[in-house]
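Mods, move this if it's the wrong board.
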Amino acid sequence: MPLSEGVAVRVLRAVHGHSTAAAELAATLTPGERTGQLPLPDPLARRLPTTEGHRARLARLPAPSRRLLLLAAADQHPVDSRAFLRAVAATGLDTADLAPAEEAGLVRSTAAGPVFPDALLRAVVYDSARPEDRRSAHQLLARVLDPRSERGPWNWHRACAALGPSRRLARDLAAAPAPDPVTASHHCERAALLDPDPEGRLRGLATAAVHAWQGGQSDRARTLLAAAEHLAARVCDGDSRVPLLRGIITLRSGHAPAALDDLAAAATGEPHTPARAVRALALVAEVGHYTGDLRRCHQAARASEALARRCPPSADPAVHALLAGLIGTAASGRGRDGEGIDRLRESVTEARRSDDPAALVLATVSALCLGDDDQALAASRHAETAARAQGDAAALPRALEFRAYAEVWSGRLPAATSTALRALRLAHETGQDNIACHLQAGLALIAAIQGDAGTCLARVRSAQAHAASHGLGLATALSIWALAYLDLTRGLPAEAASRLRALARMRPGDGHPAIRRLATPHYVEAAARAGDEPAARAALAAYERWATTATSPSHLALVARCHALLATGEEALDRYREALELHDADGRHLERARTELLYGVALRRMRRRTEALDRLRSAHQAFERFGALLCAQHAAAELRAMGDSTPRPASTAAEGSGGAPTAPALQALTAQQLVVARMVAEGATNREIATRLTLSPRTVDHHLRSVYARLGICSRVELVRLVDA
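Not the wrong board. Structure tokens:
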């Protein structure tokens, strides 16, 4: 059974990037570990050939060398105390005893102390020592540390040197400052081992697991959580952090709907504070968003409203932002758009006053819903900065995910791809495979916009396979939108409309109402171009009601564009001009370029050549700049059909329609006839050609008969031969 992509990334990380050890560890994994259903084991517990080789080399060293190596290993990880040289000086040890280890390639001496060439080797050095030798090393390090200025490392080494349980040591270590969540997790785990009270051990293990998750150590977090769950079965008073973390892990990597009960329990469990309850309810709402079941969002919002009425208002802007975002999203979902929009704006404003990554990610989502990409970009950058400063690795993939969406609609496709790929790597590293699935779907949409059909389809397959087994309606809906967008830009509006109609009928877990709404302008375009005007008008009416309440220029611009697609004559042109004016007030440059393309096509059909050329050239340049290949090709084809000499983009020079040298016999054709001839040679039917060129099938048939007459042929087969020649 092959490793899942996320497990493969985490296996390499578990052995500190040692590729040989990674292959050895992968070979030992059980089926549950290979698929990610079970956490990865400690590599040292599997006795890999690489680690056993390290042990053999260590065993051949003199005892003084091994003692110094152990002291260096204890000094460096998991708490970096930087006390090795002080400890050596305090005890009269001689660093010259490291020479045999240096000759064996096990360590390198520097002015700051020994450096291990391999982090896995450092772990083996520590693990291979006898318990009493490890305690002695920690005791020595504690003796030279300053308990006032180095309180964290001092307490850590004291705790590691302890012979047995100590409530005082456990309390001191748990309260000691830690520079990041990973160090805090190790503090809490060691404190739990020292605490003689079962309830204290439970609190320590639960807290250690939460910190490990925040630090991006998902496998260690799951192992600690399992220990806490085992202990909780024997403790009368539970700890709400256990179901909270279990729910988070299930939401981010398991079957998402199954997270609901744990997260709901965490919202009411002990230790209970309104702030903790709000955060748990925000995760309950996230279950609804992941699965597409917005009833869960409504339930979380109602519980939040009740909580706000019972408890005094919090001074924490992050809590305010979470509450506002919850209530706003739910209100919009229930059709109370006015209240929903106000609350979403409040969520953005309040979150920007905080440094809370969760609140800032929700603010990014709220800004995207409002169509304010500039605010979304600012909030996502703030979220990333705050998460990095706090060592909250688990928050980074989501912050980057929603930034990528804002970059897409502002026309920064290369930046969006780079951001999404970075987020995908972090999602795999931190064990958040459901977020990775969403990112695969988002990357599929980016590939569709860029016209990269192969990448789009591959990403869709990956996303849909994972989404189907994990109840992720959001990823499923996003991947369907990607396929529909690809169809639309390839000149297949009927197929695009069919996909989006199917999306609208999907149940929770299979689709998503928010994606259906965001995709509505593309559905209106597809349905209108496919000749299904009643369906297009019905979809537009619902979208317009929401957009009018949202009062976002970007959404109102799309409403005007949809009206233009369904209008004729001067009314259509007026609507296109209205849409462009509204686009100029927002940052969604990609949709503006699409509006300009459609406007240019409408002008060409009305024989307003000068205006059409201006709009089509502008759209062509924008799509080339964005890297939207198929849209650029469409604009170029429209320009060639008008006899324009706009150079063909280099990225499309290898394509068949319009880029190949014209055979002498074809030079007798007009620009429009040449475009039709080449599309026929590519295998397109008359209806497909009509759709791509926004002509009627009768007009295409007329052009084709003229082509046959001018070339003296009578079949499509002969035409293909001529074009290929």
